[in-house]
Structures are given as structure tokens and as C-alpha cells.
């Protein structure tokens, strides 16, 4: 606890909203700087688009999206081309205001001309997205999955996924979208906050019935119908890792700005809520990522007209308590010390989190499931032994070999951060960009420094006119990524984009390594 006036630092800070809730200089904070900005609908769509440009097949789990208002003409033109090439294509689109949540302001359209342009689009940008028309139905109802993911560390990247999640159901039987049913939110939108107002909403004491169920209960049902549940889980794990790989470049820029390397500062971890929709063919599709997923384990019930009471929700409790408990176990600073051989002879002076968790939750002292590995148990007599096996499964670095080839933008971001220069900034100035070009030896007779300046001005002006962040002037990471792709395309023609980018990265990294070596030698000499 951090009572007002406390001077001593804490091991763990549990902020309600963002990293900046308090000024923290040590310990661990449960939020990353910039996470809320990074997972907003528009920023997420941009990050996914960049990855889709590089790896179209690997990133086909995110619906095709356009950003409004700036990409409205592109949206109209692309839909026209697709319709012309396939007249049987009868798409539906979903328009979602940026920064919205709980289904707020969302509507479906059949034609780009139906976008509501009056007033709000200009003042409130939005994402328009292909609507997934054929979701998997259970009891004739559409549902989505809320999965909890722990981003335990950014550098090195460590990701954990909760073994169970929530399934949130619509409350009207699903029909494919038609002009007649487009506005029926209880049929098309799975948000709990909307469906709770339907008279068909069922609060249930059981985890496998009602309008909110555990994901494991759905998996059991699918498995009994012969579905390949193992493949589904592995697709979900892959979706989560790829999404986080798309988000890390931006997060690293925020991180170095708020917690500069070499300065004392906290480390961060964060529980994220992934919203996933299963298609009829069981392919998982990402809808969105929530930086502050609700951890409530109660719901409001209307006892009599106008009289509400908070009552426990067994489904929420089953899933969420385990996620928070195990997040605390994984970031337990005392456990780190126990693991460290140099510290192992020291008896912890403070109670460990495991001790506290056991003490607070006596019901947890049950025998672990047979066959479950207990990698975190520090020994038979450890307080960990009294806790259930971890519900959080490590997926990265465990599966890093399979996914590391996707981390190209991460490497572009490392170049960007190297040339940022001033500490605490997130934007690259013209001098920094010129130094990058010079140090990586990218200018030559056919690409003069004057052309470099024009490239910088063109791209930076366009990104800044999109009005995302007026606080600082200069080139943001996404603009730098665009410039980098542009340079790669110029230099390495007629190979796929990811190969062009990889070649340019290798060239830049090679020149910079040589430069670092030279500087080291000069330093010694
Ligand atoms: P919010 O943050 O407002 O909840 P979401 O992106 O989660 O916004 O969308 C709200 C709901 O709309 C989702 O829970 C889902 O049921 C539905 N939805 C969103 N995007 C799509 C899509 N591309 N295809 C089908 N349904 C979607």
C-alpha cells in the first residue's frame, strides 16, 4: 500500500490507469508508458497495417482497416476496385470511433457512402473495418473471447497468456448482416456493457452457461464436437505474439523517453485484454487490445426497479483472480532474489508475495493438478507449493525461434532511437535524420543530401498534418518507418518488401557496428 505521505519506495506499484499516475523511480509498475496510446484503435490499425505490408499472410488475422477521415478516398477507391473484380462480393463494414470503448459510437454499413460524415468524423477520427460476417456461433449466438495477456518485459520480450479467458455472448440470435438488421446491436456487438441491457441477458452462477462463460467451457464444447482445439490454441498464441511484436517498436520509443537507459527507473509489466472473434472455420481474428481491461469480479443486479446491488460473478472471479494472483507471483521481487544464487543464503526479511497470497486466500492451498509442471515452485517447502499451478503460460521467449524473423520494425525502431539524440524525446529532428543517412552511408550521387531533406520534410509534414501528436515537432517513429521502407524500395528493387527492408537493415547495422568499433579504437588510442 502507498498511503499518502509514505517516503519509502515500494517493490510493486499497481496503477489504476497509466504509467504516469505517480512519479516512480524504482520497483516495478503495472503499466508501460505509452501503452494506452499504442493500443488505441487508429494506432493499432496503423501498426498492423505496417506488419501486413511486410508479412501479408502472417498478419491476415486482423481485418482490413482504413483510418478516417484521412483514408476515406482510399477506402472508397479500394472497395470499388474489389467490387469490380468480384461482383459477388457483398461486404459489410464496421465503423469504430478512435478511443471509444464498450461499443460506444459503433455502427455497421453496407456501402462506403453510408459513413456518417456530419461533424463527428472530423472531430473524432475512426477506423472503418471489414466486418466478419461468418463468426462461429454457439447456441445460435455470436460471442467473442477476452483473453488476458501479461507483457512481463519489453527488453527482453517476455509474454505470458492466461490459460482461460471469458466468452461474452450476444443476446439476439445471429443473422448475417442485411440492411434490415444492421442496427441490431444485441445481434452484432458482443460487448457486455451493451448486452447487459437486453432482457435476454442471462447472469449465471455456472461458468458454462449464460451470457458470460469461461473460454475453457466453449473449448470443451468444441472439442466434444470434434474440433481441433489444440490447433485453435496454437493459432491464438501465434496471434498474441504477432500482435505484441507489432506493438513493441512504438512501446520502446515511449519507454526510452520516460525511462532513459542508464538512469534509475522502474521496470514495467502490464496485463492486457485481447478481444478475439472466432470465425466459423475456427480462425481467430483480433478485434482489439485493451490496455486497462476490467478486473471487476462483481456485476450489478437490479433487485427491484431502481435498486441495484453488486453481486459476485463466479465466471469473472474464476478467470480474473487467477490472472492477478499469478501476475504477482511472476513479478515477485523476493522470488527473483531467491533464484539468484548469490542471494540464496539470505533469508528474506520481508514476507514474499506467495506468503501473502497463501495467507489471504487459504482456499488456494490445494494440491496441484497431476501432470502440471511447476516451473515456478522454488522448493517443496516454499510457500509457492501451497498455491495452484500457474494459469499464465509463457509463450515468449519460449517460441521466439518461430517468430523472431517478424521483428523487423523493432530493428528499425532501434535505429530511430539511436539517432533521437535528446533524451526524453519521441521525435527525430532533421539533423538526426541526416546523421542517420550519413552514418549508414545511404546517400550517393543519385540520392543527394538535398533529396534526403526533401524526403524528411515530405513525410514528416504529412504525418504531423494527421494531427496525432502536436506536442513535439519532428519525425515520429511511424514516419521514420515509412521513410525507411521508401529507402529500402529505392535501393533493392524487385524483391518483396520484407526482403528489401531486411537488406537495408543489415546494411545500416553493419555500417553502424563498424563505426562503433572505430570509435572504440579511437577511444583506446
Ligand atoms: P469497443 O472498444 O467499443 O468494444 P470493439 O472493436 O471491441 O470496440 O468492437 C465492439 C464489438 O463489435 C466487438 O466486441 C465485436 O462483437 C464487434 N466487432 C468489432 N469489430 C468487428 C469486426 N471486424 N467484425 C465483426 N464484429 C466486430
UniProtKB/TrEMBL annotation:
Query: Which keywords does UniProt give here?
Result: ATP-binding, Ligase, Nucleotide-binding
- Respond yes or no to whether keyword Phosphoprotein is given for this record: no
Please provide one cellular component term from the Gene Ontology annotations of this protein: ciliary basal body
Q: Which GO biological process categories is it annotated with?
A: microtubule cytoskeleton organization
Q: Does the keyword DNA-binding apply?
A: no
| PROSITE patterns on file | TTL
Q: Which InterPro entries match?
A: TTL/TTLL_fam (IPR004344)
Molecular function in Gene Ontology: ATP binding; tubulin binding; tubulin-glutamic acid ligase activity
Q: Which PANTHER family match?
A: TUBULIN POLYGLUTAMYLASE, TUBULIN POLYGLUTAMYLASE TTLL11
Descriptive protein name: TTL11 polyglutamylase
- State the species of origin: Smithornis capensis
Q: Which gene encodes it?
A: Ttll11
Amino acid at each position: 500500500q502507498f498511503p499518502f505521505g509514505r517516503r519509502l519506495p515500494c517493490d510493486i506499484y499497481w496503477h489504476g490507469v497509466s504509467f504516469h499516475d505517480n512519479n516512480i523511480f524504482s520497483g516495478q509498475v503495472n503499466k508501460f508508458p505509452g501503452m494506452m496510446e499504442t493500443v488505441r484503435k487508429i494506432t493499432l490499425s496503423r501498426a498492423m497495417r505496417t506488419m501486413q505490408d511486410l508479412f501479408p499472410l502472417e498478419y491476415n488475422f486482423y481485418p482490413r482497416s482504413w483510418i478516417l477521415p484521412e483514408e476515406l478516398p482510399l477506402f472508397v477507391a479500394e472497395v470499388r476496385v474489389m467490387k469490380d473484380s468480384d461482383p459477388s462480393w457483398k461486404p459489410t463494414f464496421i465503423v469504430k470511433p478512435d478511443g471509444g470503448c464498450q461499443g460506444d459510437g459503433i455502427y455497421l454499413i453496407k456501402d462506403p457512402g453510408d459513413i456518417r460524415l456530419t461533424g463527428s468524423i472530423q472531430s473524432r477520427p475512426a477506423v472503418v473495418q471489414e466486418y466478419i460476417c461468418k463468426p462461429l456461433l454457439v447456441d445460435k449466438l455470436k460471442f467473442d473471447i477476452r483473453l488476458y495477456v501479461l507483457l512481463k518485459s519489453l527488453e527482453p520480450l517476455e509474454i505470458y497468456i492466461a490459460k482461460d479467458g471469458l466468452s461474452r455472448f450476444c443476446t439476439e440470435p445471429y443473422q448475417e448482416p442485411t440492411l434490415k438488421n444492421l442496427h441490431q446491436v444485441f445481434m452484432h456487438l458482443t460487448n457486455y456493457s451493451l448486452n447487459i441491457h437486453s432482457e435476454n441477458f442471462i447472469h449465471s452462477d455456472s461458468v458454462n452457461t449464460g451470457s458470460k462463460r469461461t473460454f475453457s467451457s466453449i473449448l470443451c464444447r468444441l472439442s466434444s464436437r470434434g474440433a481441433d482445439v489444440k490447433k485453435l490454441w496454437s493459432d491464438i498464441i501465434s496471434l498474441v505474439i504477432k500482435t505484441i511484436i507489432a506493438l513493441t517498436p512504438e512501446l520502446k520509443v515511449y519507454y526510452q523517453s520516460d525511462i532513459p537507459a542508464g538512469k534509475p527507473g522502474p521496470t514495467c509489466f502490464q496485463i492486457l485484454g485481447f478481444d478475439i472473434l472466432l470465425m466459423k472455420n475456427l480462425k481467430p481474428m483480433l478485434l482489439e487490445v485493451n490496455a486497462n481491461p476490467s478486473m471487476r469480479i462483481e456485476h450489478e443486479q437490479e433487485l427491484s426497479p431502481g435498486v441495484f446491488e453488486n453481486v459476485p460473478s463466479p465466471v469473472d472471479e474464476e478467470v480474473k483472480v487467477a490472472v492477478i494472483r499469478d501476475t504477482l507471483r511472476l513479478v515477485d521481487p523476493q522470488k527473483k532474489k531467491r533464484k539468484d544464487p548469490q542471494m540464496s543464503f539470505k533469508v528474506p526479511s520481508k514476507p514474499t508475495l506467495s506468503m501473502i497470497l497463501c495467507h489471504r486466500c487459504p482456499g488456494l492451498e490445494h494440491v496441484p493438478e497431476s501432470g502440471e509442471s511447476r516451473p515456478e515452485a522454488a522448493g517443496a517447502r516454499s510457500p509457492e507449493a501451497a498455491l495452484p499451478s500457474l494459469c499464465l503460460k509463457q509463450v515468449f521467449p519460449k517460441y521466439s525461434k518461430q517468430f523472431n524473423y517478424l521483428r523487423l520494425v523493432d530493428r528499425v525502431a532501434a535505429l530511430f532511437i539511436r539517432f533521437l539524440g535528446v533524451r526524453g524525446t519521441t521525435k527525430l529532428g532533421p539533423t538526426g535524420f541526416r546523421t542517420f543517412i550519413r552514418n549508414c552511408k545511404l546517400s550517393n550521387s543519385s540520392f543527394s543530401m538535398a533529396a534526403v531533406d526533401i524526403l524528411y520534410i515530405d513525410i514528416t509534414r504529412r504525418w504531423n498534418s494527421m494531427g496525432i501528436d502536436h506536442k513535439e515537432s519532428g519525425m515520429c517513429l511511424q514516419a521514420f518507418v515509412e521513410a525507411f521502407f521508401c529507402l529500402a524500395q529505392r535501393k533493392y528493387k524487385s524483391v518483396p518488401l520484407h526482403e528489401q527492408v531486411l537488406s537495408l537493415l543489415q546494411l545500416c547495422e553493419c555500417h553502424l557496428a563498424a563505426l562503433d568499433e572505430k570509435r572504440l579504437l579511437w577511444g583506446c588510442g
